[in-house]
Write a structure and sequence with these properties.
single chain; alpha/beta; Aminopeptidase; Aminopeptidase i, Domain 2; 9-stranded mixed beta sheet; 6-stranded antiparallel beta sheet; 20 strands; globular
């Protein structure tokens, strides 16, 4: 895939993926178009023949699998992991309420967003809706209003003269979007959602909406920016950029080795869910492929896991927030992330392998270490490495404004990450780099 085409495809994917549910659906379509066959966890499949497969869980996590016919015990697995969710604002179950002539939406904070960036933005609604038809059957459908329907207005500076001085945001009182003006007989939210379902799915059975997982989403589309279009800006670059690169690399290459791409939901809230990295999704699929514990452990000892999640690029206005000797820059290549407390799973061996892989691919590589006097975040890397006993490296594209409603990354870094993913998935099992790693 050509450089410009890959970037344009990423921007289209971001625009069409306002939630983890939509991202999973769009990546699934990408896999199906490439000939991958769906497996359902509730079916008793085992002893898979060589081929390309995918499995979904909770409509928000996805595992893509290529079995080449080689014995995994002898050659291991190439594994790439990312997460499909992003910080944001999720609707409460009883979201609709009125006050002072307005209809508003009650929301909870999901993950750790930069809350100030959510004010005064054109916001839409997207997510999944569970509904019942006239025969009593339950169905789940994705919804996306695809237009501005809400806003969280700031308080005018005339009413808060200290607004520009260390303002504190109260999550319960301040983050309450305005949806419409109050009516004499307001329409219940579930009826609003039923009407949206009818618009999106004309000809479907009349729906009685029973419940929903809905999020506020920014309406501004992704874009290339900069005088020479060096940057991309979008919501949810963390971590849909990595998800797209991993799946795109998988469908654009012909892996020689048994390969997995695992995309987990709920990383931003700790991963302790049925769809998260601390759940059973990846381990249960591995158990089906290799039922014998001894075989499975032998295969994992010959495997390698790349945990791909965006990294903190050096901010030109706040360079003092970084370790002065580890300053990742935009468009200078993927970033190796290390932490002495193992908040990242990178060690000398896994870092060396990734450096060598980048060298083979003619891709530059950088390093990130958090300042010693600041707390470090984490990824799915340590969770996966600890649970499976698999060698793991934490890497990611350098970005600015992480967890903002609109994030910034380097356009060339998108291409670099994709190239490294392709090289990793196609590295021959007879290559000395892989053989020395798996020895």
């Amino acid at each position: 895939m050509a450089h410009d085409h890959h970037t344009d495809a990423l921007l289209s994917f971001l625009a069409d993926s306002p939630t983890s549910f939509h991202a999973t659906a769009n990546l699934t379509a990408m896999l199906q178009e490439a000939g991958f066959v769906e497996l359902v966890e509730s079916d008793p499949w085992t002893d898979l023949k060589p081929g390309s497969y995918f499995i979904r869980r909770n409509q928000s996590s996805l595992l893509a699998l290529v079995l080449t016919g080689e014995d995994p015990v002898r050659t291991g697995f190439r594994m790439v992991g990312c997460h499909t969710d992003s910080p944001g604002l999720k609707l409460k179950p009883g979201a609709l309420h009125t006050g002072h002539g307005f209809v508003q939406l009650g929301v909870e904070v999901y993950g750790g967003p930069l809350l100030a960036t959510w004010f005064d933005r054109d916001l839409s609604l997207a997510g999944r809706v569970v509904w019942q038809d006239s025969d009593g059957c339950l169905h789940t459908s994705l919804v996306n209003f695809e237009r501005p329907v809400a806003m969280i207005p700031s308080l005018a500076i005339h009413l808060d003269r200290e607004a520009n001085k260390n303002k504190t945001i109260n999550r319960q009182n301040d983050l309450v979007p305005v949806l419409m003006l109050e009516k004499e007989s307001p329409t219940p939210l579930r009826e609003i959602l039923a009407a949206q379902l009818a618009r999106q799915y004309p000809g479907s059975k009349p729906a009685t909406v029973l419940d929903f997982d809905l999020f506020l989403v920014d309406c501004q589309p992704p874009a290339k920016i900069g005088l020479e279009e060096e940057f991309i800006v979008s919501a949810r670059l963390d971590n849909l950029l990595s998800c797209h690169s991993a799946v795109r690399a998988l469908v654009d290459t012909v892996p020689e080795c048994n390969t997995m791409v695992i995309l987990h939901d709920h990383e931003e809230v700790g991963s302790m869910t049925l769809a998260g990295a601390q759940g059973s999704f990846l381990s249960s699929i591995l158990e089906r492929i290799l039922p014998g514990p001894g075989q499975r452990q032998a295969a994992l000892k010959r495997s390698f896991f790349i945990s791909s999640d965006n990294a903190h690029g050096v901010h030109p206005n706040f360079a003092d927030k970084h370790d002065p000797h580890h300053l990742p820059r935009i468009n200078r290549g993927p970033v190796l992330k290390s932490n002495a407390a193992q908040r990242y799973a990178t060690d000398a061996v896994s870092a060396a392998f990734f450096r060598a892989l980048c060298g083979m691919t003619d891709v530059p590589v950088q390093e990130f270490v958090m300042r010693s006097d600041m707390a470090c975040g984490s990824t799915i890397g340590p969770l996966t490495s600890a649970a499976l006993g698999v060698a793991t490296v934490d890497v990611g594209v350098a970005q600015l404004a992480m967890h903002s409603i609109r994030e910034l990354a380097g356009e060339r870094d998108v291409w670099y990450l994709y190239q490294v993913m392709c090289s990793f998935l196609t590295l021959s099992t007879r290559n000395n780099l892989w053989r020395s790693l798996a020895a």
